[in-house]
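Lecture notes, structural biology module. Today: joint structure prediction for complexes of two components.
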Amino acid sequence: MSAGHWKRQIHAIRRIGVRSTSTRKVRTVLRVWIVLLVTLCCGANPSPRRVVELYFLHLVQDPIGTLPLLSQEFHARHGLRALTLVRYKFVRDARETKDSPGAPQPIETPGELSRAIYGWLVYQYHEPAWPYDIHIPAEVLEERVDGDRAVVTTRVRMAPMPPFLQRFVLSRSGVDAPWLIDEIEQEEVSDQNVRGAFIAAPNGALLARYLAIIVRQAKGAPGSSPWSAAGDSKLLTPRRGP
Amino acid sequence: MRPKSPSQHERQMSAGVGRLWWIAVSGVALVALVTRVSNAFLLPPLIDYDAFGHGVNAFALYQGQLPDPRSWAGFHPPLYYAVAACLWHLLPPEFSVQTALRLLSLAAGAGAVWWTNRVLARRLEPLDAAIVCVVAFCTPVVIIATSMIGNETTCALLVTGTLARLTVPLPHGASAVRHAAWTGVLAGLAAFAKATGLIAIASLAIFYALRLWRQPRQLFATLAAASIAPLLLLGLHYAHLIAASGGSLGAVISGSVASADNREAMAEQPPGFRTLAHYLSFPSAALLMPYYKAPGLTESVPGLLYATLQADGLGDFMPASRDRASHSGATLAIAGILPSALALAGFARAIRRPARYGWLAGPSLFAGLLAMAFVYYTVALPRYSAVKASYLLGALLPATSALGIGLEAASPRWRGLLRLLLLLVAVCDVWILWQGRWR
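The predicted structure, tokenised, for the full assembly:
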């Protein structure tokens, strides 16, 4: 064997050593990432209080972010249904059918759930009264947990409107399942703060009450409201910003 | 000390000027990226194109389910939403979901531009390639698409990857089959992100057929290898759509199985019909007031296409009702004349010199098919919202190549000035379309 042959052998062994070191480093990095990912993905479920805090954090500012916090029962209750681009169809339908607008409707098919979710998102997009870059100021007053059901009571203060109480009913399907919001109840809601109540918990009943006030105001002072008495203008004034 | 020779001095000057250009290009690219990230946080909620549909689709995948095919955007292939759902699971619950989905869209768009630069740096002068790629990244349609939730940029990334592989000479034998298999994977994934990717698959098949028609066995093996991934991915997806919606294959691809609400809403949009004049007109509003409600723009396909390419033609990004928005829109549209004209000149040059620009055959084939599909789509759906430049994002590589060829064709005397003007246009676009300006 020539000296050149041994040199080549030694060089090849050194390269293997380098590759082995690189491979070990890569494996170590991968192990760290896998542990990190598993930790992130398998973290503890938020408590009912935390779910409510996340609800207010995402509401209006990041409506898509509220979706994992809401149960199917919630979407059946809020009475807002999909409008796609026809943003005022909800009101038009209510007028045409003479039904109570925004009445809870059972969800029996995936299509109905999609329409309910769209309705939930569309009305958050279109409600202009609260700036979308400011959190809704809500203070958690009480958290009661009873097995797989919980009730969280908050006070919402949206100055200059009077404050009101907002109560969240949550449930989970098991000890390891996440808490989901099933229902929102409100107290101390009057004509002075119905708009704030609607922003904090969009639903069809509040929307109907809110629209009735708008129409009354328009009839009382023509030109002072974005609405005509016939109600054929756009549903809500455009959101601030683009 | 011996004085330097003129040629040595000139070389040092040239190297210095070259460094300055690279610093300028890097600076513009960095500013573009930072403002794009900023837009993801500052853009108001749900203002993105079809944000409701994309959000609900991502949520369905987040829950481990497929979207309802009859919903607003449920007919879209699930790749973008699957990646979005994975990201959603990884992020802390306090992080804004819509911001994350917008950043995902940005990452895909930036990846497409990076891939384009890789191709062009081998074919053109590297500095020119970098400049035209930065200009492409700063084109209003790309700024808007990469600032919004959507699957267009993911599809554009994968289409660019597919077309990039068609710009290199085809290997022979077993290597060709392997090349086709991997290219088919990219094309299949592109179609799995958005239906526009189907055109990439068609382009791939035609490209191989044109190159290998004299070798039928090689052609058969190549096409078979290229179609494995698309058939697997798309077969599953479209079989599910047909079974769930009851529609035909054409109906599920075009999205006409979507909800009755959606179809009713689209039916209310102007113009409602198409004539030849709509494809030949270019009203001045496309430059002076590039907003779809401007006179003549809902009817004019080239005009509205230009307004959505070089400005905010549909008015979803800038506040269209404000005066400064209309002035800004006009500034964008007028500034966009230079890169558009240069790209057209480059396109004409590439056609006249097929031997020199033969590497563009694959991307050009895709661009031609995409253009035909776009025209067909605007005829089949004669509504103004069907004329949107973001539907053509998959043509990023051929369009940027044309721009680069146009710049390359300029004489050295004019090229420096053109480079400077292009970078100024890019800076102008980025500044006007930065959301921080409008808050």
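Point to remember: Chain B has 20 helices and no strands.
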